[in-house]
Amino acid sequence: MQNRIKLIFISLLLFFCFLILFEALKKSNIYVPDKVLKKSLPKFKSQDLDLKKEISSDELFVDSEFYLLNIWASWCLPCRKEHSILMELSRNPKIKLIGLNYKDKFTNAKKFIDKFGNPYSDNMIDTDGTISIELGAYGIPETFIINKNKKIIKKYIGPLDQNSLNEINIILK
Q1: Could you tell me if residue 12 is inside a domain?
Q2: pLDDT value at position 167?
Q3: Sequence-distant (≥ 6) Cβ neighbours of residue 148 within 8 angstroms
Q4: What phi, psi does 122 have (nearest 5°)?
Q5: Separation between Cα atoms, residue 117 and residue 128, nearest integer Å
Q6: In terms of residue numbers, what domain contains 130?
Q7: What whole-number distance in Å separates Cα of residue 56 and Cα of residue 53?
Q8: What single DSSP character describes residue 34?
Q9: Comparing C-alpha atoms, which of 137, 165, 166 is closest to residue 72?
Q10: Against a cut of 0.90, is the pTM above it?
Q11: Is 73 helix (H, G, I), strand (E, B) or coil?
Q12: Is residue 28 part of a domain?
């Protein structure tokens, strides 16, 4: 009788452990940010790459109909690939380009901009990646189109290409 009670207890314990494991396997532990479209731009403060002074998002997003916020790094190969598209967009007066340098060394970021050109009217530093995470980014490059009401209206994951350039130009019309 005592062996039967032990067997039932062990069986119930194993069944309970199996249920917990089975439920845990159904849940993903991969971080995926919430949908960011139509979400208000979070407020942040960061150091400017050129001026080395702290500036807030409220100071950056004040004088344009549309903004393009591009998260980039000198060590990011896709960022190099999209840089010519950003340079082309920087010539469009309907949009203000803001760069957010992600987890980069200051000297490497400056060399990148000096070598390839500076498409950004302002270039901020995100040394630990917290600003990017608050924006809903989970990789680089990522680009956000933001309207004058500080609402994110479009998000591009990965490097901008000719198709995204055409799409951005349609948004700007």
Answers
A1: no
A2: 94
A3: 64, 65, 66
A4: -140, 145
A5: 24
A6: 45-172
A7: 10
A8: P
A9: 137
A10: no
A11: coil
A12: no
147 in a structural domain: yes
Q: Which residue has the tokens 């903004």?
A: 67
Residue 129: which region, alpha, beta or left (left: phi > 0; alpha: psi -120 to 50)?
left
* Rounded average pLDDT per 10-residue block, the chain, 173 residues: 82 83 68 60 91 90 93 96 96 95 95 96 94 90 94 94 94 88
- Within a domain: 137: yes
Q: Please tell me the total count of domains within the chain.
A: 1
Cα 18 from Cα 12, distance rounded (Å): 10
Of 65, 83, 130, 135, give the one whose Cα is nearest residue 102: 130
C-alpha distances out from residue 29 to 2, 24, 26, 34, 86, Å: 42, 9, 10, 14, 34
Distances (CA, A) of 150 to 24, 65, 122, 129: 38, 10, 16, 21
